[in-house]
Amino acid sequence: MPKTVKVCVPGTTANCGPGFDAVGIACTIYNELELTLNRSDKLNIEILGEGRGIIPSDEQNIVWQAVQAVLARTGKSYRGAHIKMTNNVPLARGLGSSAAAIVAGLVAANAAVGGPLSKQQLFELATEFEGHPDNVAPAIFGGITLSAVYQEKAHCLRFLPPGVLEMVVAIPAFNLSTKAARQVLPETVAYQDAVFNISRTALLIGALSQGAFGHLQCALEDRLHQPYREALIPGMRDVFQAANKQGAYGSAISGAGPCLIAFTQQNAAPIGEAMVAAFKANNIDATYVILHIDQAGARLIDA
Ligand SMILES: Nc1ncnc2c1ncn2[C@@H]1O[C@H](COP(=O)(O)OP(=O)(O)O)[C@@H](O)[C@H]1O
Ligand SMILES: N[C@@H](CCOP(=O)(O)O)C(=O)O
């Protein structure tokens, strides 16, 4: 009887303002994946929840491609599988659905063949797949992650802030693929803008690691991606202002957008409602969710 493995992987919010392609946070919104490898040559992919009817259910599926990458790396060969995914992370909204899918495939395949690869090896594979480490790092390790690629190897440090930090995410009713949101970015930036972002990123990590959240208003400022992506997210500045007016510490684009995220320790629901109303005033329907930091990252659960 082929063994079924089941994994749970968090969605993630990347960048956190100035930390473009480097900072990420695992969030309490999850996708689940069941994987059963078999000796047939039939690939059967069942998709429930977000992405049903949209995500490819053949060899093009990135979960299956991630599974194949682990099999190739570990010298195993299976052409048949049953994959069942139950997705809560919305697609192409800036909450790391592609990273969650890749990490789910890697972690499940590794477990299915006896767990030969370490978390660090899975992180390196995941970074190659995704092209940037900031979503896959928190999806694998949980918490707040700082990552960089050095000599073709992905490095990551993870920490948790002291105190409870709530994340209010306004989810507008339109998609924005990360690819499209990267295409609007310039090839080069001004020296002053680079310096501006270095100071904000340094302050951001200090504020998050020390629980000095009062610095977030300044620390979430960014000049490397948000100004260029603003045109793709109608009402962005109004939504930030609405959240801040309700007492949020600060706000940013979640990942490549279009979700916008506000950080707070109180008043989360009024902040979410104000963000939705500000989107509405710009003719954009939206909903909101209140998320916390997922501490564990991708994990095996009982099948
Ligand atoms: N569970 C999944 N299984 C397979 N592919 C997925 C899954 N979730 C997302 N994807 C792929 O990732 C794409 C979205 O990735 P991306 O544009 O990076 O946005 P984000 O990661 O912010 O949600 C989807 O259009 C789809 O092709
Ligand atoms: N650093 C990336 C993050 C993309 O995150 P996603 O959740 O939108 O996939 C970028 O800003 O392009």
From TrEMBL:
EC id: 2.7.1.39
Q: In which pathway does it act?
A: Amino-acid biosynthesis; L-threonine biosynthesis; L-threonine from L-aspartate: step 4/5
Function statement: Catalyzes the ATP-dependent phosphorylation of L-homoserine to L-homoserine phosphate.
> Its catalytic activity?
L-homoserine + ATP = O-phospho-L-homoserine + ADP + H(+)
Organism equals Dendrosporobacter quercicolus
- Record bears the keyword Cell division: no
Keyword list, A-Z: Amino-acid biosynthesis, ATP-binding, Cytoplasm, Kinase, Nucleotide-binding, Threonine biosynthesis, Transferase
Q: What is this protein called?
A: Homoserine kinase
Q: What is the main EC category here?
A: transferase
Which Gene Ontology BP annotations are present? threonine biosynthetic process
**Pfam families, A to Z:** GHMP_kinases_C, GHMP_kinases_N
Q: What is its main location?
A: cytoplasm
Q: Give one GO molecular function term.
A: ATP binding
UniProt binding sites for ATP: P90, L91, A92, R93, G94, L95, G96, S97, S98, A99, A100
Compartment annotation: Cytoplasm
What's the family?
Answer: Belongs to the GHMP kinase family. Homoserine kinase subfamily.
The record's gene field reads thrB
Q: Which residues form the GHMP kinase C-terminal domain?
A: 212-280
Ranges for the GHMP kinase N-terminal domain?
61-143
Q: Any keyword Coiled coil?
A: no
